[in-house]
Amino acid sequence: MFHANVAQRQKARSVMQRAHFAAKPRLSTAQAKPWLGSSIAMAFALLMPAAFAQEARPPVNAVPVGTMDQLGKALFACWAPPPGTEGSEITFKFGLTAKGELRGKPLATYSVLKGSEERQRAFVEAALLALSRCTPVRMTEQFARVAASRVLILRFASGERRT
User: Which are the contacts of 148, defined by CB distance < 8 A and separation ≥ 6?
Assistant: First the structure.
């Protein structure tokens, strides 16, 4: 009798799990990532081989950064939004190594792109180039360990003044 109850409970649990899984809405990749428009995909395809080649370059900043605020300012030092892209924004998620280099490719997690497809592409390219040009970032030894253990999120927006 005990074994029958256990078997019945397991069977009921299995049926409930299948019903729960089947009831979940399924989204295609295109629906799940609406921010990944054709212009972003094209920009990544065009820029990745050249912009993120792992060559040994000296750090851009002369003074080592020691805080997240200073790191943000150092990364925005190379950012210049193209004209005609006011109102556009893109957010990247990425990591840095302890040497201040990009760890892998930045992942676009959010974007609002205004204007023609050419202007949208130019905006995304400018944001990716800013990350490429401003890395590696020189960091203090203690801060380098902190920054290397974090996932960083950086928002590039046109029409806003960064200080």
Answer: 95, 96, 97, 98, 103
